[in-house]
Amino acid sequence: MTKVLLTGFEPFGKATLNPSGEIVKQISGDNIVTAILPVAYAQSAEALLALIEHHKPDVVISLGQAEGRTQITPERIAINLDDARLADNEGVMRNDVPIVVGGPVAYESTLPIKEFVAAINGAGVPAAVSLSAGAFLCNHIFYVAQDRLKGTKVRSGFVHVPLMDEQAGEFPGLPTMPLDQMVKAVRAMLEVL
């Protein structure tokens, strides 16, 4: 059996919810370890690496919220850059900061992202491959995980999810998706594995 580590994030900024964390709360299984990471540069990376070290998963899938997206979007590339317009939950702002000094410019996901997209679409949920995980916490942990796991057999990567319907009031005018659809999408990805 494939052992999967599935992570989401706590709410950040002024938001009271984070769909990635809410999805993780609804997924369980014999070989699935779930965790909700803090939205803080140092702590999120430390927490993720500690979970990988402790649980020794075969697959690591990290989820995060992407306002404005209308689809579930497995990310293709993590870049070696923290460069965000907002601070993390500890108030830390990073602009033009390499994540790993001297590290490669980018890493590719080692997840079967095109198969994920096909499975999610097959489950009736819109999905597409994304080429940019941004340069905030989502990209940060994606890069850190790829850097730690390079040269191993562990497959890892990042998947962005839209805002959930319950966030419509906090993010007026931005697209949302029902939480149950997102949970269905993640289950479809797990089936691929």
Summarize the structure.
This protein is α/β, with parallel strands linked by helices and 193 residues long. It is 31% helix and 20% strand.
What does this structure look like?
This protein is α/β, with parallel strands linked by helices and 193 residues long. It has a single domain (4-192), classed as 3-Layer(aba) Sandwich (Aminopeptidase), CATH 3.40.630.20. Helix content is 31%, strand content 20%. The chain is built from five helices and nine strands, in the order βαβαββββααβββα. Strands 2-1-3-7-4 form a five-stranded mixed β-sheet, sandwiched between helices. A two-stranded antiparallel sheet has the order 5-6. Strands 8-9 form a two-stranded parallel sheet. Strand 1 (4-9), helix 1 (19-26) and strand 2 form a beta-alpha-beta unit. It is globular, with a radius of gyration of 15 Å. The model has no long low-confidence stretch (mean pLDDT 97).
- Helix share, percent: 25-40%
Low-pLDDT ranges: none
DSSP strand count: 9
- Number of helical elements: 5
Q: Report mean pLDDT, rounded to a whole number.
A: 97
Could you say what the CATH architecture is? 3-Layer(aba) Sandwich
CA-based gyration radius: 15 Å
Q: Strand portion, in percent?
A: 15-25%
Task: Spell out the blueprint of helices and strands.
Blueprint: E1 4-9, H1 19-26, E2 32-37, H2 41-55, E3 59-65, E4 73-74, E5 77-79, E6 106-108, H3 113-122, H4 137-149, E7 155-161, E8 163-164, E9 176-177, H5 179-192
Helix pairs in contact: 1-5, 2-4, 3-5
